[in-house]
Amino acid sequence: MKRVLIAEDEAAIREFIVINLRRGGYDVVEAEDGARALELYDACDGDIDVALLDVMMPNVDGLEVCKQLRSRSNNIGIIMLTAKTQEMDKITGLMMGADDYVTKPFSPSELVARVDAIYRRVAMNAVQKPSAEDIIELGEFKLNLRSRSLTKNGRYIELTQVEFQMMEYFFTNHGAALSRTDILNKVWGSEYFGEEKIVDVNIRRLRMKIEDEPSVPKHLTTIWGVGYKWII
User: Fold this and answer.
1) Phi/psi class of residue 63: alpha, beta or left (left: φ > 0; alpha: ψ in -120 to 50)?
2) Which residues 6+ apart lie within 8 Å of 54 measured at CB?
3) For 82-130, what is each residue's pLDDT tens digit?
């Protein structure tokens, strides 16, 4: 069952989203505010594939719900619903663990396409079989493809699905300069039509987790005019 949690306080918008997601084959769980969204997530025992969270909601806002959901699960896909004027909220949501954002107003086809893309990643990761080489070891880092985990000098580093896929891409192409488009196509899919800056924000988030000095990265380096490179 493909299950989506939608948290949106405006009833008309919520109904519009629910109708279109159900047409797309999703089982939809509705919440009118952030607090209710967290209650429903727990009531479903975490059996939610994707969460759509409006940033501006009463009681508990979407950013806090995102933070709480990500603390409960690294596997759930999270999409923030933002207004054009909420540029900083987009970045904040991504830094808190969101996988993507959709800017209001949006078309039904755009919304369902974004949910489909996130759901495919969630489903793929749930059944994906590791390659014959289960562990990729680069310097002090070990990436385990079976347990989908990363350690640095034996210390476990918690990664979201997006972060793990990015690390796997870098580790299997270490020393190569990867463009933002390369990363976007590999991790978000070739049909993704969002903005490339989502790559930059996730790079920032990764550096905060893996680098000793995130502002002066030693491993996840910027190749100006091209993209990023993993250096051992």
Assistant:
1) alpha
2) 7, 8, 9, 10, 13, 62, 80, 81
3) 987 777 888 898 999 999 999 888 998 989 999 998 998 888 776 655 4
